[in-house]
Design a protein that fits this description.
The chain is built from 17 helices and 26 strands. The chain is an alpha+beta fold.
């Protein structure tokens, strides 16, 4: 059952019906038992409280699920809700001795629960605005490698596809006094496997109809329910009024949820070798000198050390460059490094672009992508129009360093170590990365790889945010005032130009620094943000690369100027 279904079902179970047949059914409590039986897959409720219904859960060693545990667990006490770690002292020999008490260090009514692991702790702090709050047991949090995200209201992790997956949810509705915690079954299974344990859910349900005086019971009908197949056990009591009509009914019991997955499957998950699917790609099988469609399954790829006819894992597959647009447009999820795409902490892949503009990657690298991501790459797969790039051939096959000038890489390198100006004994920045929502702003500055106007616009905006917005207006104003070239209505670029004139730089040197900044800002302002001008004619890929070359030279000249102390103010 899924989260929204669970919530709706809990609310429905607690609705008070009108008098009549519906009331008899309401007191039978069969729907509540069905709810418990139907919430052992997908999202599993491990704690909730709402009106008549209460449920709490514990991780208990599987070794305790032997003789006598059923009747023992039926004696569980309500004190377990707030039972956590604490401290105290005793006087064994007339002197105080400190002691730390572990959660569930005594039986609390059921010996089977002694030293078990509570799934959650219900904490109280009367000075805190929430007054009470729920904490997931850190042992569970750490072993499942999950962490709390406030905006999700859940303990989460990054899944194989790089998406945020909610594993343990916590929902509190103050208005309705409703609290619900759930855990994903697959993650619970893994925890139970690691700890050789079972999940024990204890529950208590007490229904009273407000149309009768429930304080007077003329008869009580008690019944024991033992379902060994589904491992749910409880005692039920129904109270009747004078004319035999039910006025109250309650059950109290427990349910055991086990990991029923095969041990072999769990061991594969533990070792990171779980079964998975692989996609086939059109590759250049240079070993056998042919273009062929081949599976990316590592077991069907050859190596340089074993003689066979299987294609090498370094056989390249080629793709339409539009494949990169998805990654460039989602800066929260993806980032770019040198010839590499990174998806949060989930996966990464190396790639390059050949002289025909095709993206290429080795089939062994493609095999390590999640299956869904492989399918995405498959949709852009095409036959090669040229070989791999000379840069990739030199570095990946000849083990040579790549010394060719790369303006994008060069620009990023100078920005990472951009120097500071000494202003009257204080080191201040004339440029620094602006504070923007995109944490990967520099990483996501890329070449334009298609003639898509959208891609070109996005990269121009990135470049403008990094370079022009990164100019520190306060620093530039301070220096221009000291050099008597300040103008109240002048922007950062014009003031910087005035500063360079004041320190007697040649007009050619000033243009080399200032003109690229003007070009970037002009394109950003008059074409991208406010389209007053036409797009550049010709190849947008080449046009943007030319801007990067000029920008790299501009920032390097400015950096040299600062390093040589020509902008220092004593």
């Amino acid at each position: 059952m899924y989260l929204n279904q669970i919530k709706k079902q809990i609310f429905k179970l607690n609705e008070i019906p009108k008098l009549g047949k519906d009331l008899d059914k309401w007191f039978n409590l069969r729907d509540e038992v069905s709810f418990l039986l139907n919430t052992t897959e997908d999202c599993i409720p491990v704690y909730f409280t709402y009106k008549y219904f209460f449920l709490h859960s514990f991780i208990v060693s599987a070794n305790k699920m032997r003789k006598g545990y059923i009747e023992d667990l039926l004696t569980w006490s309500s004190g377990i809700i707030s039972y956590s770690y604490s401290y105290g002292y005793s006087y064994p020999k007339g002197k105080p001795k400190k002691k730390i008490f572990k959660a569930m260090s005594d039986s609390i009514g059921a010996k089977t629960l002694m030293n078990s692991t509570p799934v959650i702790f219900y904490r109280f702090n009367m000075d805190y605005k929430e007054k009470s709050f729920i904490e997931l047991n850190q042992k569970i949090e750490h072993l499942l490698d999950i962490y709390w995200l406030e905006d999700k209201g859940a303990y989460c992790k990054i899944d194989d596809n790089g998406d945020i997956e909610e594993i343990f949810t916590v929902e509190k509705d103050k208005k309705n006094q409703f609290t619900l915690c759930t855990i994903k079954k697959k993650d619970l299974n893994f925890y139970l496997f690691l700890t050789n344990s079972v999940l024990v859910r204890v529950f208590d349900l007490d229904k009273i109809h407000d149309s009768w005086d429930s304080n007077v019971d003329y008869e009580r009908i008690e019944k024991s329910y033992r379902d060994t197949k589904n491992e749910i056990f409880f005692n039920r009591t129904k109270a009747l009024e004078e004319h035999g009509k039910p006025t109250r009914a309650w059950i109290r019991g427990f349910q055991i949820i086990r990991n029923k997955e095969k041990l072999s499957k769990m061991r594969k998950i533990l070792e990171g070798k779980e079964d998975r699917e692989y996609v086939s790609f059109i590759i250049h099988d240079f070993k056998n000198k042919k273009i062929v469609e081949w599976s990316s399954n590592p077991n069907e790829l050859g190596s340089y050390f074993v003689k066979n006819d299987l294609p090498f894992g370094t056989s390249p597959a080629f793709f339409n460059p539009q494949i990169l647009l998805k990654y460039k447009q989602d800066y929260e999820k993806y980032s770019f490094a040198y010839r590499q795409i990174n998806c949060r902490g989930a996966w990464s892949i190396s790639y390059d672009i050949n002289e025909e503009g095709q993206v290429h990657a080795y089939i062994s690298d493609l095999s390590r992508l999640p299956y869904e991501e492989q399918l995405y790459w498959k949709s852009y797969n095409e036959k090669p129009k040229a070989g791999i790039s000379s840069r990739a051939f030199d570095s990946d096959f000849l083990a040579k360093w790549d010394f060719d000038y790369d303006p994008l890489f060069s620009l990023k390198e100078i920005l990472k170590k951009f120097p500071k100006i000494n202003y009257k004994g204080e080191n201040i920045k004339i440029w620094e990365l602006p504070n923007v929502p995109n944490p990967n702003l520099i990483d996501n500055l890329c070449y334009v790889d298609t003639n898509s106007k959208k891609e070109w616009e996005d990269q121009v905006l990135n470049l403008a945010k990094i370079i022009v917005d990164g100019l520190d207006t306060n620093t530039i104003k301070k220096i221009s005032k000291e050099l008597n070239c300040y103008g109240e209505n002048l922007g950062s670029i014009k003031l910087l130009s005035n500063i360079l004139k004041s320190i007697k730089m040649s007009s050619d040197e000033i243009e080399a620094i200032i003109d690229p900044l003007k070009i970037i800002w002009d394109i950003r302002s008059n074409i991208v943000a406010h389209p007053h001008k036409a797009y550049p004619k010709g190849d947008l890929k080449k046009q943007f690369r030319d801007i990067l070359i000029k920008t790299d030279k501009s920032l390097r000249k400015l950096s040299d100027l600062i390093s040589n102390k020509r902008l220092n103010i004593n």
